[in-house]
Amino acid sequence: MKQIYLILQREFSTRVRKKSFIIMTLLTPIFFAAMMVLPSYFATMEDTEARSIAVIDNTGNYGESIPQTEYLKFTYIANTQADQVKNSLEESGYYALLAIDSTSDKITPKLTIYSQKQPSIDVISHIENSLEKEIETRKLKSYNIENLDKILDDVKTEVKLRSIKVTKDGEEKESNTLITMGIAYVLSFLMYMMVLLMGNQIMQGVIEEKNNRVIEVVISSIKPINLMLGKIFGLASVSLLQIFIWVILTFGLATVGISFITEKGQKANMEQVQAAQSMMAQQGMDANNITANMEQAEGDNFLTALKNQNFALIIGGFIFYFLAGFLLYAALYAAVGSAVENITDTQQLVLPITLPLILAIFVMISGIKSPDGPLAFWFSMIPFTSPVVMLTRLPFGVPAWQLALSASLLVITFIVVTIFAAKIYRVGILMYGKKYSWAEMWKWMRYKN
Amino acid sequence: MNLLEANGIEKRYSSHLALDDVSVMVPKGSIYGLLGPNGAGKTTLIRIINQITGPDKGEVLFDGRKLNANDIYRIGYLPEERGLYKKMKVGEQALFLSQLKGLSRNEAMKRLKFWFEKFEIQGWWDKKIEELSKGMAQKVQFMVTVIHEPELLIFDEPFSGFDPINAQLIKDEILELKKKGTTIIFSTHNMSTVEDLCDHITLINKSKNILSGQIDEVRMNYGSNIFEVGYRGNYDAIASNLGGMFEIINNNIENAVPKLQVKVANPAESNKLLQSIIPHAEVVSFNPVVPSVHDIFIKVVGEYNKAHGLSNN
Questions:
Q1: Across the interface, which of B53, B78, B100 has its CB nearest the CB of A218?
Q2: What is the ipTM of this complex?
Q3: Who's near A437: CB < 8 A, 6+ residues apart?
Q4: Domain assignments of chain B as residue spans, ordered by start
Q5: What are the residue ranges in chain A where pLDDT is below 50?
Q6: CATH node for B2-219
Q7: Does the distance separating the beta carbons of A430 and B100 come in below 8 Å?
């Protein structure tokens, strides 16, 4: 045990001090945080370039029905100027020319926009939306309904589905499918990524020891299986440390980033809210309360849903499946590393190891939509895919017997695989210049002692 | 008394028999030479003694009882295929390997300090192995092999990679270890060091132990029927009077003295040989010709392979 610990310690301390480890550990959270923050940052960015658009209203019906915004000015010009403006948009200081022509049905006009550059989506949707609304209102009005405004206000509806998980004991918990899916994705991807990354590192480490010829020095003081286990546990602890730092840093950075953005966003919001308030105040409504209440409720739902995730189970499950799955795959990678003398020779031997992992990722992607379906169920039982697929299912809630079955199958498999991998490893590390193949390794497996 | 006994060791790798009924007795406090051509099975035997691999048949006794897992702390092994972690610092690495051999961290530190001073390499502690020359790395390697003061040391080609000065340093170190009572098993192709250092030898060829014994006895056994005679006088006179009893195999002049090498049928007839020369010439020297270990090696292996219809490869 002491020797396994010594190996673990060596692996841990040499790897943690490597430049590549430090860079990976620090850069990855920046990347992840950026992925979380940037979309909302871009969303808050508005097109702030002031543009003026010339409008020729050939129907004569739509004067002033497109509202001006801070950045978009609409200038109505006379019909006669049309051709002149169209051909010299830039010189006349216009961004585009909008032509409104009547059609046979009289109500829906034909709209055409002329511009030198492709007009931005904001411009187009602003024009379309405001005219659509205008036309809808006009159409409604053409039915001559009494109290139309009141009716319209009355029919405005917004539906929100609150999802609540009920446990067997009748306990109710607020849940959020999106959050659950997000957690499931992150967990299983981390698993997949770390096994691939660290598996390769173990393999490289073994090959390095073999090429350095340090292996026989070490092996005369420690049993090969203990050396292998020490290495695997060492790498596992390196990975756990790395994940831990990633999670903390990512959330830290993301929180800082998002609060920075929302602060900026809130200022803009405040102005709008104030404008709305002053308008509503004239109508004698207590606007302040309404908006505040609405936002409060929304945020609370999100937080309770997040809090209601069974984090003890998820973290515990992650650590268990991570370690067990890692040990299973790392032992195989170590065995492959022992059989070759060069990293380029590993490709054909590694393929059978990576196949189940890739399969697991495919199952994960489709299984995340129906975490209790037969596909996800079976692959969360099969030991070579269960570390990834079970982590996908875990946040959605998994019956205890399934967890127990999958976990014990995984543990049994990793013990059996480790024993066989150790046998290959034991022979392989002292073998130079031999032809390597799975067939050759099968022979090694049956050597005594 | 024997510190190590291997009795009837057999080891088979799928179709290849690596060791066939090999026995060696290593007396306590001796330097024991393990000789043999490449691929004879020496390394396999050494690995069995180090418990890196196990024998299919036979047993290894250490200090009078069956070898067990804890004995690795009492054995030091310098393999032929040796190296160190290139990216690791010398000090850290030495500490790690010493601890693997069962030393506590403090004890390892203390002893390493001693050895670093002894080899005058204090400045290397924070250097990486890849910054050292091959010979320097070998020094570190030697140090971590003996750091836990084992009772049995096994050196496989210990001098490869050393320049003559450092080779001498290591040789002296080995002799000093012997003086302290350490038993040493020594595998090499360098026959002159075998003659310098070893008390006993075993010659392994084609998986079998074909020659074992005290080095002087072995040499005497293989060489006591040739005598070298330094003389002053007429060669023809000697040659014509030796009759059919003795065979002159060589005659040349060495250091201004003519010397004859004469083969006798029976070592006990050396007096007779002298008697038949003395009347015809002045004898100035008379020595038995003891063959070198190198000659014995080639002769024994060659004869064995011939007798068993085997090639020399």
A1: B100
A2: 0.80
A3: A349
A4: 2-219, 225-288
A5: 285-292
A6: 3.40.50.300
A7: no
